[in-house]
């Protein structure tokens, strides 16, 4: 294990040091932007070969649930931020009490950690959320089932990701069995009305401690089996009014919750009783988010640069678009890894699509694992979506889904 | 000193390892692109705190003129490439004899190392160069002076940069004294006719070992005291015909010299005897180049990604532009470093110009030292130039050259 924490050679004197808790692709992509800003991130990583640790020279190998490990990486850093939401609130409060600058603050972050806390808070500030309830017994679940006419969704309050921790029981028996099992296992639960989705949207903003807020255009996001597989920027065919409402909603949440850094507001789009498009909040993420990866190539300031600027309380960057449409398609490990090495698959993609921007996370193959994404820009939404999907699919399967040969 | 060479944790299994000889900003900016491609560069660095070493996890501290140091960093790498031209040819030939993949090849690279070799070679292939001569004595210099009517420029054949190694003696006495002194010091020399410059241009291309060539639009570059201070892409007001000739010239040179990776062809634009714009080659650089920094923000594939793709023999990337004009302005250390810390100066720039892309190299202040650059995109050439200059100037002096306050 290489433990190079506090490596002064990784930072030029006078530039801010950002400590990032977490070693995944989000931290990795923060590092690329940090480098261009003349900095270099310091990492609390779980392992030296992890996605972000591979590309950093100031690494502390440790455990983000251990306060001493957090203290060590935080010491001397200008700010501590995150590539995930799982650091215990009490540790963050302890760091703050010791004078450490933590962004976002735990009071904001808890809304991205606990789905029930978030919904209660959003309801308080008047933000639209689907009907929901705390579930502490099978009876609670049954009552909610009846109240929403059986369209129910059970969620673990904490620790879910990529659809893990979300269940859609189809009848009361299934619901009861599920809830009984989860409660017995000690999983804190909530229930939410199952929304008749038209599609999912994501409204992303960045907010600095000084209160400046900048919003990217709303994007459409596509989930497959609970995992984000595609984001299309801007959201195709969205009305000016709905786009504006979505952005204003995200701005309001950022302001009311005093979020700092980048925040994604995952939204459900559904038809209201009059058949008009309406929105409700599904989830908050207080960090760069999968639905914002398109910004790396699609606009002037990426979410990773913006997050660093925001947590360092720099003025925020322009989000002017580089092209009419940018599509992000996730690269998820397939059932097995093709024999053709990844480098050759990349060559295959570029031979056919020289404008495809390939972003890989330095991760090895595992079925369903996010190992990278493709950004592709163009003028035509449908064609760009199709092409981005083809590229992502080729990186996984080493063959063109449309039968193209070459 | 952290010596982490051969650190397997810095690379995910299966992805190519690119060894870069040199630790300056060019290697640093290759690293940001390598990261996004799922790789990480291995570095032969002079010091652990150097620009590229700060941001890399696989570093060998050594000397690029020492064959054993070169061997150690090359071992197990898929390709060896460079962020400067100063590696001795005999060492590169030795590495190749040992089976190492070196790109570009020394046979090409020598044309970027020796100004006289380059000019002879270019003349052979019919590329336009100003009249020149080898200078081995004061008499040679005097004869050349007479032949070009006194418009003479003396150049050290090797090792020059940022205008060091270029002299413009104004009369024969000055010339004789200069040449005598330089020859006595053992500096191999050449003379070139001093061209009545209209401006300087740069034509950049990338070529892969397979022979694919991609060219960026020709840019105008501005030199101040021999140092590149600005690049404007595409070159303002250039005729379609001259732009095409410039690009074709760079393509021809890349092909004839079997260049691999990125090459900049620095050009003089001057008026021919009929008063029409004409071009001649000044210099070749076989690596990413200062006049190509605009590509990081101004087009789909940056010169750093393209260089990695080219030396790895991947298909090359699209060079479609992100906006009508992109201006790169260099940030050069001023006479003294202002009291206002760099982070605050960055904030000042962004407050006024939220679209300014700041790229810093992790270097400390030294008068005249290149410590970073600004890229700014826009629609209006003159305004964008003015604004980019203002930003670069503010980063150096912590005050707005146009008197703006705030
Ligand atoms: N109330 C609901 N009605 C309909 N579909 C829902 C509802 N809640 C969740 N879903 C579906 O399940 C997916 C995953 O849910 P959710 O976002 O809560 O899970 P997660 O694991 O926290 O996801 P992520 O990793 O995207 O944050 C959603 O993107 C949506 O497609
Ligand atoms: N023959 C010439 N006629 C007129 N000006 C010249 C001539 N040669 C060089 N110059 C001027 O001097 C500058 C530096 O020259 P040159 O590019 O040869 O030096 P260098 O130190 O190798 O530069 P670089 O770092 O840009 O490669 C040129 O950009 C140009 O402005």
Automatic annotation (TrEMBL), chains A, B:
<feature type="domain" description="ATP-grasp">
    <location>
        <begin position="119"/>
        <end position="312"/>
    </location>
</feature>
<feature type="binding site">
    <location>
        <begin position="192"/>
        <end position="195"/>
    </location>
    <ligand>
        <name>ATP</name>
    </ligand>
</feature>
<dbReference type="InterPro" id="IPR054350">
    <property type="entry name" value="PurT/PurK_preATP-grasp"/>
</dbReference>
<dbReference type="InterPro" id="IPR005875">
    <property type="entry name" value="PurK"/>
</dbReference>
<comment type="similarity">
    <text>Belongs to the PurK/PurT family.</text>
</comment>
<feature type="binding site">
    <location>
        <position position="200"/>
    </location>
    <ligand>
        <name>ATP</name>
    </ligand>
</feature>
<comment type="pathway">
    <text>Purine metabolism; IMP biosynthesis via de novo pathway; 5-amino-1-(5-phospho-D-ribosyl)imidazole-4-carboxylate from 5-amino-1-(5-phospho-D-ribosyl)imidazole (N5-CAIR route): step 1/2.</text>
</comment>
<dbReference type="InterPro" id="IPR011054">
    <property type="entry name" value="Rudment_hybrid_motif"/>
</dbReference>
<dbReference type="GO" id="GO:0005829">
    <property type="term" value="C:cytosol"/>
</dbReference>
<keyword id="KW-0547">Nucleotide-binding</keyword>
<dbReference type="Pfam" id="PF22660">
    <property type="entry name" value="RS_preATP-grasp-like"/>
</dbReference>
<dbReference type="Pfam" id="PF17769">
    <property type="entry name" value="PurK_C"/>
</dbReference>
<keyword id="KW-0436">Ligase</keyword>
<feature type="binding site">
    <location>
        <position position="115"/>
    </location>
    <ligand>
        <name>ATP</name>
    </ligand>
</feature>
<dbReference type="GO" id="GO:0004638">
    <property type="term" value="F:phosphoribosylaminoimidazole carboxylase activity"/>
</dbReference>
<dbReference type="InterPro" id="IPR011761">
    <property type="entry name" value="ATP-grasp"/>
</dbReference>
<dbReference type="InterPro" id="IPR040686">
    <property type="entry name" value="PurK_C"/>
</dbReference>
<comment type="function">
    <text>Catalyzes the ATP-dependent conversion of 5-aminoimidazole ribonucleotide (AIR) and HCO(3)(-) to N5-carboxyaminoimidazole ribonucleotide (N5-CAIR).</text>
</comment>
<feature type="binding site">
    <location>
        <begin position="282"/>
        <end position="283"/>
    </location>
    <ligand>
        <name>ATP</name>
    </ligand>
</feature>
<dbReference type="GO" id="GO:0006189">
    <property type="term" value="P:'de novo' IMP biosynthetic process"/>
</dbReference>
<dbReference type="InterPro" id="IPR013815">
    <property type="entry name" value="ATP_grasp_subdomain_1"/>
</dbReference>
<dbReference type="Pfam" id="PF02222">
    <property type="entry name" value="ATP-grasp"/>
</dbReference>
<dbReference type="InterPro" id="IPR003135">
    <property type="entry name" value="ATP-grasp_carboxylate-amine"/>
</dbReference>
<keyword id="KW-0067">ATP-binding</keyword>
<comment type="subunit">
    <text>Homodimer.</text>
</comment>
<dbReference type="GO" id="GO:0034028">
    <property type="term" value="F:5-(carboxyamino)imidazole ribonucleotide synthase activity"/>
</dbReference>
<protein>
    <recommendedName>
        <fullName>N5-carboxyaminoimidazole ribonucleotide synthase</fullName>
        <ecNumber>6.3.4.18</ecNumber>
    </recommendedName>
</protein>
<dbReference type="GO" id="GO:0005524">
    <property type="term" value="F:ATP binding"/>
</dbReference>
<feature type="binding site">
    <location>
        <position position="155"/>
    </location>
    <ligand>
        <name>ATP</name>
    </ligand>
</feature>
<dbReference type="GO" id="GO:0046872">
    <property type="term" value="F:metal ion binding"/>
</dbReference>
<keyword id="KW-0658">Purine biosynthesis</keyword>
<dbReference type="InterPro" id="IPR016185">
    <property type="entry name" value="PreATP-grasp_dom_sf"/>
</dbReference>
<comment type="function">
    <text>Catalyzes the ATP-dependent conversion of 5-aminoimidazole ribonucleotide (AIR) and HCO(3)- to N5-carboxyaminoimidazole ribonucleotide (N5-CAIR).</text>
</comment>
